C-alpha cells in the first residue's frame, strides 16, 4: 500500500522526505543507525535502543491485557516490535511506517502485520487499538501540525487506551548543536520538543499524562561516552554505570536527549 501525503507539506516536499528515508533505509537496513542517531557510534545507539525497549517493557506492557491490540507507529524495521513479540506473543501487533523499504524489513524481521502510511493520516479506523507506540516518530511532523497529528493518533485508541511516546528534547538538542562537528548524511527533518510543548500535547481533552521522564544520565554522560567509543572495556563499564543511574533518575526530563510520556485516552471528543 502506498504511503499517504504528509499533512500540510507540498507533494514535492513529501516526496523528498520519503526519498531521504528510502535511501537511509536501503543503506542502513535493520540497524539502529538507520532509525536512531546516525552520528552516534554503534554501542551508544545500542544503549539507546535498550533504554527504549526497557521503557516499553516496564511501563507499557504490564498495563496491557492479554490479546491487546498495539499499533507501532513509525516502526522502522521493527526493533521494538520484535522485543514485544518475544515477551508478549499474545499481543496483536501491527507496525506502520512511511518508508516502503522499512515496511518490507519490518515484515521480514518481525513476521508481523504492516501498514505503509504516514502517521499524519493513518488508514486505520478510530478506537481500534488498546495501545499506540510512537518512538522518535512524532518529531518528524512539522511543528504547526503536531497537535493535529497527536489528536489523530489518540483517536486510534479505545477509551482508557494507552500511548507511549519518546522524542528528542529540544533544550538538549540546542545545547548539543553548538558542539556538533558534522551533519547526518541524510537529513530527514526531525526536530525536538520543549518540555512545555510536550506536556501540552499530552494533556488534552482527549488524553492525560500518566507518567513522564527521560534519560538523564546518558544525556549528561554522552560526551564522555562518545570519547570512549574506541575503548571497549572502558566504554562497557561506563555504560553499565550510566544504565544504573538512568534507572534512578528516570523521572528527570528537563535536559535530556530523549524524553518520554505515557498517556491514557479519555475517549473521542
What does this structure look like?
The chain is α/β, with parallel strands linked by helices. 43% of the residues lie in helices and 19% in strands. It is built from ten helices and seven strands. It has helices at 11-28, 32-35, 42-60, 79-87, 100-110, 146-155, 170-177, 195-202, 216-227, 232-248; strands at residues 69-73, 92-97, 113-116, 129-135, 157-168, 207-214, 258-265. A seven-stranded mixed β-sheet has the order 3-2-1-4-5-7-6, sandwiched between helices. Helix 4 links the parallel strand 1 and strand 2 (92-97). Helix 3 packs across helix 4 (79-87) and helix 9 (216-227) packs antiparallel against helix 10 (232-248). The two termini are 30 Å apart. Mean pLDDT is 89; it is low at 1-8.
Q: What's the layout of helices and strands?
A:
Elements: H1 11-28, H2 32-35, H3 42-60, E1 69-73, H4 79-87, E2 92-97, H5 100-110, E3 113-116, E4 129-135, H6 146-155, E5 157-168, H7 170-177, H8 195-202, E6 207-214, H9 216-227, H10 232-248, E7 258-265
Parallel strand pairs: 1-2, 1-4, 2-3, 4-5
Antiparallel strand pairs: 5-7, 6-7
Short description:
By secondary structure, the chain is α/β, with parallel strands linked by helices. It contains ten helices and seven strands. 43% of the residues lie in helices and 19% in strands.
Strand tally is 7
Alpha-carbon distance between the two ends = 30 Å
- Overall structural class, as computed from helix and strand content, comes to alpha/beta
Compressed to H and E, one letter per element, the order equals HHHEHEHEEHEHHEHHE
Flag low-confidence runs.
Answer: 1-8
Strand content: 15-25%
Rg, Cα atoms, Å: 18 Å
The biggest beta sheet, please?
7 strands, mixed
Mean pLDDT: 89
Percent of residues in helices: 40-55%
Q: What would you call the shape? A: globular
Strand arrangement within the widest β-sheet reads 3-2-1-4-5-7-6
How many helix segments?
10
Amino acid at each position: 500500500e502506498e504511503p499517504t501525503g504528509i499533512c500540510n507539506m507540498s507533494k514535492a516536499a513529501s516526496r523528498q522526505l520519503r526519498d531521504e528515508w528510502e535511501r537511509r533505509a536501503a543503506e542502513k537496513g535493520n540497524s539502529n543507525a538507520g532509525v536512531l542517531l546516525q552520528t552516534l557510534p554503534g554501542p551508544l545507539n545500542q544503549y539507546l535502543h535498550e533504554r527504549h525497549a526497557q521503557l516499553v517493557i516496564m511501563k507499557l506492557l504490564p498495563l496491557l491485557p492479554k490479546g491487546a491490540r498495539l499499533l507501532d507507529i513509525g516502526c522502522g524495521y521493527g526493533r521494538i516490535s520484535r522485543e514485544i513479540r518475544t515477551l508478549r506473543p499474545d499481543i496483536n501487533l501491527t507496525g506502520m511506517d512511511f518508508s516502503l523499504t522499512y515496511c518490507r524489513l519490518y515484515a521480514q524481521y518481525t513476521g508481523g502485520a504492516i501498514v505503509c502510511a504516514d502517521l499524519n493520516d493513518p488508514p486505520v479506523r478510530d478506537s481500534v487499538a488498546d495501545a499506540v507506540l510512537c518512538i522518535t516518530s512524532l518529531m518528524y511532523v512539522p511543528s504547526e501540525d503536531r497537535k493535529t497529528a497527536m489528536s489523530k493518533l489518540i483517536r486510534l485508541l479505545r477509551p482508557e487506551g494507552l500511548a507511549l511516546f519518546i522524542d528528542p528534547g529540544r533544550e538538549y538538542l540546542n545545547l548539543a548543536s553548538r558542539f556538533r562537528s558534522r551533519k547526518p548524511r541524510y537529513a530527514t527533518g526531525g526536530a525536538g520538543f520543549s518540555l512545555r510543548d510536550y506536556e501540552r500535547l499530552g494533556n488534552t481533552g482527549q488524553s492525560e499524562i500518566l507518567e513522564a521522564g527521560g534519560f538523564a544520565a546518558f544525556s549528561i554522560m554522552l560526551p564522555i561516552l562518545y570519547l570512549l567509543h574506541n575503548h571497549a572495556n572502558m566504554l562497557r563499564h561506563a555504560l553499565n554505570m550510566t544504565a544504573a543511574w538512568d534507572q534512578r533518575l528516570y523521572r528527570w526530563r528537563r535536559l535530556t536527549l530523549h524524553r518520554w510520556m505515557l498517556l491514557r485516552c479519555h475517549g473521542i471528543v
